[in-house]
Design a protein that fits this description.
By secondary structure, the chain is α/β, with parallel strands linked by helices. The protein contains six helices and seven strands. Helices cover 31% and strands 26% of the residues. Helix 3 packs across helix 4. The longest helix has 17 residues. The protein is elongated. The mean pLDDT is 94.
Length: 193
């Protein structure tokens, strides 16, 4: 059986893998995430997830290990919305997202360190936010401290009160598409059911 490594410190990604009944070790990749403006958002997250997997791969050369790496970003009218730098930035981001339809794009890579075989895939989920007042934004930021989240929010936490509608892959929007992941894991001989 292959040893699984999750190349992420995301608590939500960890929960999703645990829900699938997978046994794995967490080793965050901590790469310096540089965006390439020539790439589409889906290409960006796929590229970043591959970089994260390759960074961890160096620790497990020729070992029977499968690395799972992922990246998520929020996109509004073609603009990538990253993680807020501070409280002021979080306010600005949430004001920008207020009353909009935007997307959460998540990519992941599975990389076999023994065979060097890898697969990269991505999903896009559309999110509709209601209009959010300044008072709500400030209260939310004080309570949630969302500085480690793309777009300054997570759909499965308190920010769900802002969401009118979700269209697409719910788990993909939380950081890792369970549907696509389980489909791709089969290619590496790992069946969930």
């Amino acid at each position: 059986m292959k040893k699984l490594i999750l190349a992420s410190s995301s608590p939500r990604r960890k929960q999703l893998l645990q829900m699938l009944g997978l046994s794995f070790e967490v080793i965050p990749s901590n790469i310096d995430e540089k965006l390439d403006p020539k790439l589409s958002p889906r290409q960006q997250v796929e590229n970043l997830s591959l970089q994260k997997a390759q960074t961890i791969e160096t620790q497990f050369k020729n070992k029977n290990v499968l690395i799972i790496a992922a990246d998520t970003m929020v996109v509004l009218k073609g603009e990538v919305i990253g993680k807020p730098k501070d409280e002021k930035d979080a306010i600005k981001i949430l004001q920008k997202l207020s009353g909009t339809k935007h997307s959460i794009v998540t990519g992941f890579t599975l990389l076999d360190t023994e065979t060097k075989k890898y697969v990269t895939n991505s999903t896009e989920t559309k999110i509709w936010f209601r209009k959010i007042s300044s008072v709500e934004i400030e209260a939310y930021i004080k309570r949630e401290q969302p500085f480690d989240k793309a777009g300054g929010y997570a759909i499965h936490e308190l920010a769900s009160v802002f969401i009118e509608k979700i269209e697409g892959d719910d788990s993909g929007a939380t950081g890792l598409s369970v549907f696509l992941l389980t489909k791709e894991l089969k290619k590496f001989g790992i069946n969930i059911l």
